[in-house]
Amino acid sequence: KKGVYSAEDVRYSRSFVTASERTQANIAVGKQRLQEMGFFGTLKQLAQKMLTLYNDGTFAWGKEGNFLQTVFDPPNTKTAPFLRSIYYPDGSRYLYFTTFEQFIWLMILLLGAAGLFSSFSHKHAKILNILWLTWIGLTVFELLFEVRARYLYTNVPLFCVLAAVGIENIRRLFCRITEKLSARLPAKKSV
């Protein structure tokens, strides 16, 4: 099973001298792999890439890179060890941190999806549609190229704005339901 990164593919690409040779060779390999996977294999591959992209609320914190390669001695305080226990992958509270991050991220994604239902009738429909197209374009770009959860991090404000729109949609929906229910109830007679 291949992971996100393939050193073998990188070596293959680097084996070509010119950019045009590399492009042609990579396109040929891509076509061959698509044929080998078939339709359902390609769908499975895209689903795995979507999970890699959107299923990590920490944006791959501590999973890639060398930023924790050198760990310096903490200052002689209670705060540094406590924070390290939360943010360092081997910390005793790290699981709580990642669970909380995942919960927040899933809520942002779900609320962002709820924002879709207003973009066609909202007074700011053009702006919302641009934000939705940005989300779709970002997703397609990631699926076509190197998918990494960390690449979404710079777009967190986009997701937060769409989540705020989703919250407003849910609030409006509850208001409409409440109004309809209260209209069906018989009015109380004053004595």
Write a structural description:
The chain has helices at residues 7-14, 19-54, 79-87, 94-114, 125-144, 156-184. It has 191 residues and is mainly α. The chain has a domain at 55-184. The radius of gyration is 24 Å and the shape is flat. The model has no long low-confidence stretch (mean pLDDT 86).
Features of the shown structure:
mainly alpha, 191 residues, 0% strand, single chain, 6 helices, flat
Which series of helices and strands comes N to C? HHHHHH
Helix content: 55-70%
Averaged pLDDT: 86
Strand content: under 5%
Contiguous runs where pLDDT drops below 50 for at least 5 residues: none
Rg from Cα: 24 Å
| Largest sheet features | none
Overall 3D form? flat
Q: What structural class is derived from the secondary structure elements?
A: mainly alpha
The CA-CA distance between the termini, in Å, is: 76 Å
Note the total helix count: 6
Oligomeric assembly: single chain
Would you count the extended β strands for me?
A: 0
What topology emerges from the helices and strands here?
Blueprint: H1 7-14, H2 19-54, H3 79-87, H4 94-114, H5 125-144, H6 156-184
Helix pairs in contact: 4-6
In short:
The chain has helices spanning 7-14, 19-54, 79-87, 94-114, 125-144, 156-184. With 191 residues, it is mainly alpha-helical.
